[in-house]
Amino acid sequence: MKKIGFGASSAKIIWFGEHSVVYGQPAIALPLPAVEVTAQIETSSESSSQIFSRYYDGDWQQIPAEMNGIKRLSEYVANNLQLPSTTFRLSIDSAIPAERGMGSSAATAVAITRAFFDLAERHLTRSDLLKIADVSEQVTHGNPSGLDAATASAQWPIWYVKNQENTQLPINLPKATMVIADSGVKGKTSVAVNQVKEQLIMNPETKDIIAEMGSVAQQVPAALKANDVVSLGSLMNQNHELLRQLHVSTAQLDLMQAQALKSGALGAKLTGSGLGGCLIAIAPNSRIAQKVADDLLLVGASATWIQPLNQFEKQD
């Protein structure tokens, strides 16, 4: 066993298919290596383990309830690696904002799991990684889909159909660049999900919106392979309009979407559950992406990130 173990993971965004994925339509998610979380575990001679993070610094036994997922995961992995008597210092450094639909809790779970296996000098398969990370997600979210952890640990986009498919998509976008912008308002996942559910009951035409979102997502894989950034942008705009029809966008997100297009983005949409959270925009190159990011800050975005889309490995 080493003295220090290190693990890393990244944020994720839903590129296409939020909300409609709940009703059996496909979703496409994208890992964001530009927005990283790291975990470092160091063996300790102290009588009790310690944790250091943006939410809490201190004794392991005094971890606040909102971090119980991390506590449960760490103890589970330590036991499985036969490290239960080892005390340690766990340091978590995350650039992923919480409650923005960027998969903060799942990315943290992936990073911690990787750090423990690195400490123990044990090989970790991706399937085992996802099973272990789910221990934390079950505590944090109750009944997670697994999409967040699958995407946070992936090297390319994920094609996901609930209870059916979870596969990696080939991508060929040598110049296109993604901009992610935080609206400054926390997303309201449970409210948005329940709102769409009620709308489906009250308005039968909502089923057509959900089906159209699925149709949009079906067109994405071909555009990803063909470097068809114009079509990707158009599909993103269509997806945003459909989300507006589900009433999960906000005036701020709509303002940011319009500004992104005005600044040169080929497409832009909210990402995640909506009613807050983030906007994503696709630009034809890094220069325009930087202009889009700068202009979004001028219309109220609280933070922006730039993710080149040529960083993802192609599927063999």
UniProtKB/TrEMBL annotation:
InterPro entries: GHMP_kinase_C_dom (IPR013750), GHMP_kinase_C_sf (IPR036554), GHMP_kinase_N_dom (IPR006204), Mev_gal_kin (IPR006205), Ribosomal_Su5_D2-typ_SF (IPR020568), Ribsml_uS5_D2-typ_fold_subgr (IPR014721). Residues 223-296 form the GHMP kinase C-terminal domain. Residues 71-152 form the GHMP kinase N-terminal domain. GO terms for molecular function: ATP binding; mevalonate kinase activity. SUPFAM superfamilies: GHMP Kinase, C-terminal domain, Ribosomal protein S5 domain 2-like. One of its GO terms (biological process) is isopentenyl diphosphate biosynthetic process, mevalonate pathway. GO terms for cellular component: cytosol. Keywords: ATP-binding, Cytoplasm, Kinase, Lipid biosynthesis, Lipid metabolism, Magnesium, Nucleotide-binding, Transferase. Pathway: Isoprenoid biosynthesis; isopentenyl diphosphate biosynthesis via mevalonate pathway; isopentenyl diphosphate from (R)-mevalonate: step 1/3. This is Mevalonate kinase.
